[in-house]
Design brief:
The chain has five helices and no strands. The chain is mainly α. The chain has one domain (about 5-130): Methane Monooxygenase Hydroxylase, Chain G, domain 1 (Up-down Bundle). The chain is extended and about 85 Å long. The relative contact order is 0.05.
Length: about 140
């Protein structure tokens, strides 16, 4: 007698079997005619220039992740906008709180400077910048 976990395990084994059979069958069925053109890196129709091992600016990834986070959250507003009237004032307040939190998150990212493509370079203070040539500390205007 199989338990529920046993049924799930058998289902996973059958699924893995189908995947392996499909990959092996595709290897035997598909034509293998590699050419120089087929083995080139495809970059949206553009010819590649230089090595593919180029360091990207980390800002690209930060902006992309922030976009994904806020984009997914905004997509959650679509079902709410369609049905909030059915839930009355409570449904409206839940959506309003969500929008306020979303706005606060966006303001935080903006204030932090993560939405700027080029950040101002921070120059850390050095010992020479805070001490005069005679060894006394410089007076800093506040």
């Amino acid at each position: 007698m199989l338990t529920e976990f046993g049924k799930i395990f058998i289902f996973m084994l059958v699924a893995a079997f189908f995947v392996v059979v499909a990959v092996i069958a595709a290897k035997f069925i598909r034509p293998a005619r590699p050419t120089h053109e087929k083995q080139l890196t495809y970059e949206c129709g553009e010819d590649t220039i230089g090595t593919p091992w180029v360091k990207f600016n980390i800002r690209f990834y930060v902006v992309a992740l922030i976009f994904l986070i806020f984009d997914v959250e905004v997509v959650l507003l679509i079902p709410w906008a369609l049905v909030y009237k059915q839930f009355g004032l409570g449904g409206f307040l839940v959506g309003a709180i969500f929008l306020i939190l979303l706005g606060l998150g966006m303001a935080y990212e903006w204030r932090k400077g993560d939405l700027e493509w080029v950040k101002a370079k921070v120059i850390p203070p050095t010992l020479k910048s805070v001490i005069d040539s005679d060894g006394s500390p410089k007076k800093i205007a506040v």
